[in-house]
Amino acid sequence: MLTRKDLQELAREKLSNHLFVVVSNREPYIHVFKEGETKCLRPASGLVTALDPVVKACSGIWVAHGSGNADKTVVDKKSRVMVPPQTNDKKTPTYTLKRVWMSKEEEDGYYYGFSNKGLWPLCHIAYTRPLFKYSDWLHYVNINKRFASAILEEIEGKNAFIFIQDYHFALLPKFLKEKRPDLNVAQFWHIPWPNPEAFRICPWKNDILEGLLANDILGFHLRYFCDNFLETIDREIEARIDRERLSVFKGGKETLIRCYPISVDFEEISSHVTSEAVKRKTEKFKKEFDFDNKFVLFGLDRIDYTKGILEKLQALDRLLEKYPEYIGKIVLLQKGTLSRIHIQEYKNLNDEIDALVEKLNWKYSNDGWSPVILTKKDLNYEEILALYRLADACVVSSLQDGMNLVSKEFVASRRDEDGILILSQFAGASRELEEGALIINPYDTDNFAETLKKAIEMPKKERRQRMKFLRQVVEENNIYKWISEIISDIVTLENNYI
Ligand code: GDG
Questions:
Q1: What separation in Å is there between the alpha carbon of 45 and the centre of ligand 1?
Q2: Does the global pTM surpass 0.90?
Q3: In this structure, which residue's CA is closest to atom 34 in ligand 1?
Q4: Domain at 410, CATH number
């Protein structure tokens, strides 16, 4: 099992001659005005957990959109700030966060528009129609160019590895390589890659594919997404595909297509659950919610149409309809994290979820009991861990999901080797976790309801066996393995060994 220390050593050893640059839309530290002061917050994100130690270990640079309302007040003339803020002992390693600015109009076109009304539904086949607007596309192109300029400014005269995150930057590799063909550029696409039939409707599909093929390595969570990408290339552009090497040659340049399943910091989560802070939160929740003698289902999702929250509620409805003996004995605690609320589909979904919860609670509630507790309150890390530990089962019912970190966090938090994972077959995580989890098809309401029943009735011994197995898988395939494999491949590629 690889640890944070192994990763830091690998980064120091292999990346010492290069500047390591991570690029993402969301920043790892955000400055906000709060209660009359400027505060530096660390957004809860699996990506930050994975990449923060690497960037620290090699004193690299992280380039991201400066979205905090106090972000501009703390940066230098080149929009840079050292993070994390130094504590008194001054021993914490730091790195440079370079912020890229954009107007509301640009953010609307690049982020809400092309990225999230266009590419997000295009890549997740969840039957929400993608929307392609030329004005959004122009903003997307311009913001990709702006990120390229910001990066090029920082790496002038230096060797660098650029590690780009996600679908917000499909054109960035090309803009970088046009100016600096010597750079090593890798990109990780955190969402699925669809089949060629689905992808072909995008009006700017060739620009996107050519942009991505400027990478030296392009990573996906699953082999299935790599295969879809290669199929898409085969159908859409002139390029040679080497299926054995899993690579594409275009204009004399090779791009390796690789699968790296993302994960979580198993060790950290598994030890943090026993902390006093998590215990205090657990006690608080036990008082707040009446979970005594109830089978507790827990859901933690961004309110997004890909996450299958309505389908989860429908399955619970079916269970109670078919097996009324569970009325009063089961409760679903669903945390819905508000997301992309400027987009109409997300607003509508939020309303539909509220209405369905209201309907179910009206239909079944008795003696002060209701089947669903829906909360949208911000939860901190300790609160999330406390809820994972309080649950009998964690229910992930995504209609499509690149990986799904919630399922892996739940497993990592169950140091007690108890708890059941109910997992959609359409979440990338199901490839690794199918043996220990109860696998569902969220579109099949009856079968989903039967699976909930199976979970409620599962003997303790089987719960333990399954959880033990799941924990071995996540412990071995942790976040450090994910990033170490990517770094090793980038380095090997540079030495022309692959
Ligand atoms: C994309 C892909 C892929 C949620 N609410 C709160 C909170 N969270 C945290 C969870 C988890 C993360 O957010 C959600 O990660 P997921 O992987 O489940 O989903 P996406 O946001 O859609 O992520 C996905 C991922 O990228 C990584 O590649 O797995 O497939 O769609 O860590 O714990 N954290 C806190 N409060 C909340 O209220 N603190």
A1: 6
A2: yes
A3: 44
A4: 3.40.50.2000
